[in-house]
């Protein structure tokens, strides 16, 4: 008889388990495939993509195209399509506000699309980390909104530089741009009537200088040339006296003249581009967290529009007693304080303290740059944490 001994059955170890070393489903770090999937889900929403392209690229392009055609057809009636003023108004008045709104709409869609379409349960049963599923939406959404904003901004910069006017308008007078103080004095000496009748100065012009409708806005008043009629009374002046008066007025106005530019500088365009990209990124991340927290898109989009269009302008311009620190905690005020100095004040209803807008921040509720940066970082971190927490605790 043959005796058969029981042989131990080999137990597979973790190292020999198929695919055990490459399984990262429990990791909170999103992998490239997860990000690509979220990107494709958002990109396939045609209505949303059309809205994003139209607002970020279509609106500024259409505006500039109309101006280009108008100037080409009737140059005396329609000014150049580009230039410094067109650039600053488009960036601060259109791309900043509407870029935030459509970026927030994209974020709200990314934060609620799985729940709205009943796909959240299917994502959970895959075993993937819920935190990774949430974090994967951030680079996926930014990969859509950042290039769109960049393309629209590049079109604005190109047209505003290429189609800029050849001269600037200062106090109603057409003047060559970029003159030094000596160059402006020389130009004023060669065009004394234009300077005396248009540049501001405290006293009326000489009687033998014709200024159309006389002293007033756009026609003076300018300095006194003492003549035969008596001291301090405008009277006839010699050509040399008129030129000297024009040069003196030009010296007094050089500070305002040098703040007017034909087209934006490279430094201003770079800063403005980074600034509106920051605003769009904030809109997307906050909208993503808010929609994930509430679980629906419509209400989240409405709340983001109210924040940008109603609450931010109020809190940015008006000091509310006993609520100053609360106003400083609004992210819109923080980003407004980071606005480049060459742009007009957003939500200001006009220029921001001069042609270059260098004093725009003085019209805002006071806040230091350090506090503004901290507020922005806090909003990004807090809303990301709230959105991720709600996704991790939501019932499948």
List the main descriptive attributes of the protein structure presented here.
396 residues, mainly alpha, two-stranded antiparallel ribbon, two-stranded antiparallel sheet, 14 helices, 4 strands, 59% helix, elongated
Write a brief structural summary.
The protein has 396 residues and is mainly alpha-helical.
What does this structure look like?
- With 396 residues, the chain is mainly alpha-helical.
- It has two domains: 32-166 and 263-316 and 373-393, no CATH class; 169-257, no CATH class.
- It has 14 helices and four strands.
- It has helices spanning 32-43, 46-73, 84-116, 120-124, 130-135, 137-162, 181-190, 192-198, 239-257, 266-294, 298-317, 324-328, 331-337, 369-393; strands spanning 168-170, 173-175, 226-227, 230-234.
- The strands form two sheets. The chain has a two-stranded antiparallel sheet with strand order 1-2.
- Mean pLDDT is 80; it is low at 11-21, 213-233 and 349-358.
């Amino acid at each position: 008889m043959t005796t058969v001994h029981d042989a131990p059955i080999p137990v597979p170890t973790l190292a020999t388990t198929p695919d055990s070393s490459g399984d990262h489903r429990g990791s909170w770090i999103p992998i490239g495939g997860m990000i690509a999937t979220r990107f494709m889900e958002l990109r396939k929403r045609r209505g949303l993509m059309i809205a994003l392209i139209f607002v970020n690229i279509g609106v500024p392009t259409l505006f500039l195209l109309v101006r280009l055609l108008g100037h080409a057809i009737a140059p005396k009636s329609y000014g150049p399509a580009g230039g410094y003023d067109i650039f600053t108004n488009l960036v601060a008045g259109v791309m900043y506000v509407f870029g935030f709104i459509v970026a927030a709409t994209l974020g709200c869609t990314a934060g609620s699309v799985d729940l709205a379409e009943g796909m959240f349960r299917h994502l959970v049963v895959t075993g993937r980390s819920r935190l990774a599923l949430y974090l994967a939406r951030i680079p996926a959404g930014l990969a859509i909104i950042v290039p769109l904003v960049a393309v629209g901004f590049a079109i604005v910069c190109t047209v505003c530089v290429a189609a800029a006017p050849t001269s600037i308008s200062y106090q109603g007078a057409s003047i060559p741009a970029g003159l030094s103080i000596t160059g402006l004095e020389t130009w004023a000496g060669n065009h004394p009537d234009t300077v005396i009748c248009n540049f501001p100065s405290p006293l009326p012009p000489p009687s033998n200088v014709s200024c159309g409708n006389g002293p007033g806005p756009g026609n003076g008043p300018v300095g006194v040339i003492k003549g035969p009629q008596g001291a301090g009374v405008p009277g006839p002046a010699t050509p040399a006296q008129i030129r000297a008066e024009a040069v003196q007025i030009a010296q007094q106005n050089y500070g305002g003249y040098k703040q007017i530019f034909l087209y934006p500088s490279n430094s201003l365009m770079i800063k403005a581009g980074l600034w509106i990209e920051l605003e769009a990124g904030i809109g997307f991340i906050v909208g993503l967290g808010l929609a994930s927290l509430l679980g629906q898109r419509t209400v989240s989009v409405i709340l983001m529009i109210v924040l940008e269009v109603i609450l931010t302008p109020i809190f940015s311009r008006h000091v509310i007693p006993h609520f100053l620190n609360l106003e400083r905690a609004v992210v819109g005020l923080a980003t407004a304080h980071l606005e480049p100095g060459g742009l007009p004040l957003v939500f200001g209803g006009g220029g921001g303290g001069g042609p270059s807008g260098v004093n725009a921040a003085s019209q805002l509720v006071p806040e230091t740059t350090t506090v503004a940066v901290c507020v922005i970082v806090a909003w990004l971190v807090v809303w990301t944490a709230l959105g991720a927490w709600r996704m991790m605790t939501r019932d499948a």
